[in-house]
Amino acid sequence: MTRSRVTIGYLVSVKTNLDEEDESIPKIEIFEGINFIGRDDMSVSDKRVSRKHISLNASLDGSLEVTVEGGNPIAIKFEDGRKKLVSKESAILVHGDIVELIPGHHFFKYVKSAVNEVTLSLGTSKRFDMKPGEDENINLKRKRQIDEDEALARTLQDEMIRDVSSPKRNMVTGSSSYPINQGQTSFDSHDGSGTIRQFDVAKDKLPLGFRLLRVKGLPSWANSSTVSIQDVIQGNVLVAVLSNYMVDMDWLISACPTLTRIPRVLVIHGEGDGTVSHLQKNKPANWVLHKPPLPISYGTHHSKAMFLVYPKGVRVAIHTANLIHVDWNNKSQGLWMQDFPWKDQNDQNKRCGFENDLVDYLSALKWPEIEVSLPVIGSVKINSSFFRKFDYSSAAVRLIGSVPGYHTGSNLKKWGHMKLRSVLQDCVFDKEFQKSPLVYQFSSLGSLDEKWMAELASSMSSGSTHDKLSLGLGKELIVWPTVEDVRCSLEGYAAGSCIPSPQKNVEKDFLKKYWAKWKADHSGRSRAMPHIKTYTRYSGQNLANFILFSPHESWFLLTSANLSKAAWGALQKKDSQLMIRSYELGVLFLPTSINKDCSFSCTDNGGSTEVKCESSKNGEDCQMKLVTLCWKGSKNTDSSSEVVTLPVPYELPPQPYSSQDVPWSWDKRYFKKDVHGQVWAR
User: Is 319 one of the annotated active-site residues of the chain?
Assistant: First the structure.
């Protein structure tokens, strides 16, 4: 049996009545990671039980994924039923479930380790987000993937499993445990703190559709004008396409019961085989599951988006949260959302950049066509071309997507950082942004080198000034939590499991010059660890203003893409080929059509943006300025300009690391206790 050093639980032999322990067979200890169980572990001679009969993938939240490795089936008795599994099939086990290693024979009860209970990230989260009276086993199921967040984390775990001798990251309990002391927070202790209080807009007037997600455990002012998943998935939805990496079906349905009543729900995901088996067997009848093709190893479907079809139009939401409880409740996250109407009959061939980019991206996902009957239209096939039926001319953003493959020729600048480069190259910026800083903020760091960082910076720095001078490279800053940030966060060290970057990636010498602090007092999110991913160029509190000959614009990118070659792509073959491993999707704020009315809504409760400039009504050029929450200017000083405040959660300019600051890496040992009395050790 392959073992790691933290005990997750035990398989305890029970008699056929399932109530009494069979003390003649010793209990089998289960460790974090992969465990193989067979007849040698049970001291039985039944040859129907192979030497590697089952594997148990044990997570720090106490859940197990059981897979049948032998040729004979097993059976699982859950609280609400019994299921037979044949070779290579999988299921999720929680505390109290019974495993029959041969159906009707060799009964073992899974018992979670009492010692491990206080070390789990679940145990930490439970202190501030467990619903009163909620059954712990249900909550365990909902959180079974906390420690698997992000594609890099999955890859790293696979490497750890293959290399048994390498040390693993475990949580080890400290001697005490205490709840969060809200009196110790720094929400109101610094200049600029609480400025999100003034970011208070009606939901039918969302500034460019960019909002932060609500975070439990924060003061009410910190959740001013934020959104929850119920604010997105609402109203009379006819078809839902949910694109994501991780999907906790149990939580998702409990959070949005309407998903069981929508006629068709297509879930495009990046889950592994074990979770897919669970989803497939337990999904509502109206759901269709699809995992896009991954032609290059170590890639994943990492995009996070929702496409909701209504009688009046379509809602497009692009965001940074996995479809799991912890992502929508405990993390700093971002979301962009806008509604678009159906095209008029005379405009069916009308096209725009947003539409073309969207359909190109959806086409790459290659999902099976779904036929549905819609009001007025009748029977239609839901494929990528279906989304050409909507009028996206009012879109206030451009899409920046990544699709796995080796992209050459006309496709070289279609995806990844080369797509961003091609869009920004058409833009003319104010002179103040020449050599101005670039900010990269994300939640997972790939294995990088200086050559690729220069390649990415070249794309991020694209554009020119009015006198046709290149903007030039600016100082690059990486906003990344320190160990102390994670230790003092709402979740304590458990938050670090969703910042899954190993020491070998984080502690490269050349990265030292980039590090900047995650500081978010003004939005109340200094202690809500970031899962949001943003990229921008700024000057003071302005986000790079530019002119496309008319009118003024700014750029700010919200995306699923972490800082990795897999997400953004890497140039090869003398820069003639871009290799991308993963699917990603983001929105680049380029309000080129400010003078157009963008107030359309698919629901009675809003969900769209309305940004109009008074001078544009008179035929004059309208200057657009994007600013952060900490901007100190006046919005009424110039009627020819429109100032739009974006709720960028972290402070600009970012504060560089001090000599005492240490960037977080999830596979190091930290013995200074966190806010819950825990330590973090391998």
Answer: no
